[in-house]
Amino acid sequence: MTVHGSFVEWVEKDIQPLKGKYPTWRRLDGETAGGNRTVVGAFRHAGLKWVVHGDSQFDPILRAYSAITKGQVPDPFIIKNAKVRKCLDFVPALRTGKQHKLFYAYCSQ
């Protein structure tokens, strides 16, 4: 699996083509429910390697990408401590209310 140099690169090289191929999918794995910890992508951010799970959804990823490329946010992420390892969450400006994260990226180093 390719580890992309940035979130933007990962979206442009992996996510946009995947969404173009499967435009009706909401999630990266094509499923409609349930968890999926299968790693479907990887990129570097803040000097760390992050892996993304298959149950992540396209919408928040593409919303964050759009905000970055339009200059609305310089960094879309907050690094948080999860149960076992660090995870990425979106900054409050990219979240709507108390919705679930819908994006599951974890530090792998």
Structural description of this entry:
The longest helix has 15 residues. Helix content is 25%, strand content 26%. Strands 1-2-3-6-5-4 form a six-stranded mixed beta sheet. With 109 residues, the chain is α+β, with helices and mostly antiparallel strands. It has one domain. Helix 1 packs across helix 2.
Major sheet strand order: 1-2-3-6-5-4
Mean pLDDT: 93
Shape: globular
Stretches with pLDDT under 50, minimum 5 residues:
none
User: How many domains make up the 3D coordinates?
Assistant: 1
Keywords, separated by commas or semicolons:
six-stranded mixed sheet, globular, alpha+beta, about 25% helix, about 110 residues
Task: Describe the secondary-structure layout.
Elements: E1 3-4, H1 7-21, E2 39-45, E3 48-53, H2 58-69, E4 77-81, E5 86-90, E6 105-107
Parallel strand pairs: 1-2
Antiparallel strand pairs: 2-3, 3-6, 4-5, 5-6
Helix pairs in contact: 1-2
Compact overview of the structure:
The protein is α+β, with helices and mostly antiparallel strands and 109 residues long.
